[in-house]
Design a protein that fits this description.
The complex is a heterodimer of chains A (347) and B (292).
Chain A (H helix, E strand, L loop, with lengths): L2 H14 L1 H22 L2 H27 L6 H19 L3 H23 L4 H21 L1 H4 L5 E2 L15 H24 L2 H11 L1 H6 L4 H27 L1 E2 L6 H14 L4 H24 L4 H22 L3 H20 L1
Antiparallel strand pairs in A: 1-2
Helix pairs in contact in A: 2-8, 3-8, 3-11, 3-12, 3-13, 4-5, 4-6, 4-11, 5-11, 8-11, 9-11, 12-13, 12-14, 12-15, 13-14
Chain B lengths: L1 H31 L6 H19 L2 H27 L4 H23 L16 E2 L2 E2 L4 H23 L1 H11 L1 H6 L4 H27 L7 H13 L5 H22 L4 H15 L14
Antiparallel strand pairs in B: 1-2
Helix pairs in contact in B: 1-5, 1-8, 1-9, 1-10, 2-3, 2-4, 2-8, 3-8, 5-6, 6-8, 9-10, 9-11, 10-11
The chains are: A mainly alpha (347), B mainly alpha (292).
Amino acid sequence: MSPLTLTANSRRVLERSTLLRSLGLVLLGGIVLYVVSGALGDYDRLQLATGAYYFAALAGLTMLIGCSGQISLGHGALMAVGAYTVVLLIGDNDWSVVPALVAAVLVSCAVAVPLGAAASRLRGPYIAGATLAVAVGLPALADRFPNAFGGSNGLIINPPTPPSWLGSNFSLEHWEAWIACAGALVVLFVLYNLTHSGVGRSLRAVRGDEIAAALCGLRIGRLQTLAFVISGGCAGLGGALLALVLQLAQPDAFPLQLSLTLLTGVVLGGLGSLSGAVWGAALLVLLPGWSSDIANSLSLSQNVGNNLPFAIYGLVLIAAMLVWPSGIQGGFMALRRLVSTRRRSTG
Amino acid sequence: MTKFIDYTLNGITNGAIYAAVALALVLIWRATRIVNFAQGAMLMITTYIAAAVINSTGSYVVGFVAALASGLAIGAVVERLLIRRVEHGPPLNAVIVTLGLYTFLVALAGMIWGDTPRSFPPAFSIRGYEIGGARYLFAPNDTYIVLVVVFVAMVLAALFRYTPLGLQMRAAAFKPEVAQLLGVRVGRMFTFGWGLAALTGAIAGVLVAPSVFVAPNNFDPILISGFVAAVLGGLDSPPGAVAGAMILGLALSYVAGYEGDALVPLAALVILILVLMVRPTGLFPAAKERRV
C-alpha cells in the first residue's frame, strides 16, 4: 500500500468516525492549551481559566439555542447551582476536585430536568420569560437560606492545591488553568459528539420544523428536554469551574447580567457553533479588561468603567441582530465561502 | 388576623402596579407580537428622570409628568429605531434585541447615576390608616396607587373602544395590510403603541419607586411579575392582564409575607409554569387558539 492511499484511507476513517475526530480535536486542543498555559504569566493563566469556564457555559448554551432552537436566560442560575455544589462539597465535606466537579454536573443536570421539561412545552417569548424568572429567582435562594448558602456573602473554599509531583514551582494559577481547560475540553468532546450524532440531527430537524419532525416520529418534548439538561450540565460545570477559580460562590456572582452576558457571547460567536463559543469566551474575558483600560486612559469615573462592558454587550446584542445575525463564526464562514467561490471562478 | 389583612391589602397595591406593567407588555404584544423584556429597564430610566426632576424642582407632579413624557419618547424612539427592523424576522431575534436594550439601559443608568440605591418620595403619606384602634400597613399612598392604576386602565379602555385613534390602532394590530389599504398609517400606529406602552410602564415605575428604591436592577422583579400577570391574562387581553395582576399580586404578597421576599420571583416562576401547563391560553383566553 502506498503512503498516499494510506492517508486517503485514514482521512476516510476520520470522516466517518465522529468519535475519532472529536478525540483528535480534544488532543489538539489539549496540546495547544498545555503549551499556552506554560508560556503565560500567572495573571494571564487566570484569564485563560476564566475563558475556559465561560467556554463550558457558552458551548452548552449555543448548542441549546442553535440546535434545539430554545433560548435560555437561566443559564447564569444553572452556573450558580454548579458553583454552590462544588463549594459545599469541597468546603464542608472535603471532597477532592474531580468528584466534586462530577457531582456539580449531576446536580445542575437534575435542576435542569424540570426546567427543561417545562421549557420543552414553551415557545418564543414564553420560554424567555420563564427562564428569566429562573435567573432572577434561583440565586435569591441563597439569601433565603443563609445557614446553608451563606446569605449574600456567599461561601468560600481553600484554593485547590497542585499535586506535589508537578514540583514546588508549579503555581496555583497554572493548576487552576489546567483544571478549567480540562473541563472545557470535556465539554467540547461531549458536545461535538452530540451535535454530530443522530440526536444532534434530530434536534436540528425539530428546530427546522417541529410538525415535520413529529411526523417523522421524533419525540419532540423528550429531545428538547434532553438538550436542555445537557446544556444545563455544561453550564453547571462552567459555574463549578468558576467557583474553583474564584474559590467563592456568592449570589452577586450570578446576577441576571451573567445570563445576558452568556447570551451575548453566544450571539457574538454565532448561534449553534462550537468554534463560535471559543470566540465568544475570548471576548467575554478580554472585553472587561479592555473597557477598564479605555475608561482609565480617558480618566472616566469608576461607574462608567464598571458598566462599560455591559453597555457594549447590550449594543452588541442589538447590533448583531440588526446587522450580523450569524455572529463572528458565521462571518468567517461567509468570508471563506466568498474566497472559495472566487478561487473556483478564477481557477 | 391583622397580618392577613395587611398582606391582602398589600397584595392589592402590588397587583395594581403589576397591572400597569402587564398592560404595558400587553399593549406591545398586541401591536407587534413582541414581548418587551426591556420594559423593566425603560421604566427604570423614566423613574430616574422623575427622581432627578423632583430633586431639582421639588414638585412631585412635575416629576410625574417628566416620567410620562420621557416614557412616551423612549417607547416611540425604540420602536422606530430598533423594533421596526426585527418586527418581521424570527421571534428569537426580537427577543434578543429587547434583551440587548435591557442590558444597555441598565449599564447606562449605572454609568450616569451609579449603583447606590436612591430614595424616591411617595406622593402621599405612607403611614397606615388606623381603624378601630388597629393600625394597618395600608396607607394613603396605597390608595393613591390603586386609584391611579384604575384611572389608567379606564383611560386605555376608553381610548381603544371609543376614539378613532384607538380604532386605527386595533385595526393596525389586527390586519396590518388591510388597515394600510384603508388608509391607516400602520407604522405610525405601532410607534404610538410602543410609546403608549412605555408611558404606562413609566407610571408603574413612579408608583413603585418609593417602596423598592431606585437602582439599575431594582425593577427586574417587577418586570417578571408583570410578565407573569400578562401571561395569566392570556397576553392578548388588557382586562385579563389586570385580573391576572390582581391574582398574582395577592398570591405573591402572601408568599412574601409568610415566607420572605427572596422567594417572590421563584413563586412567580412556579405560578407561570403551572398556568402555562394547565391553561396555555391564560386564565382569560382571547377567542383565538395560539401556540405557546
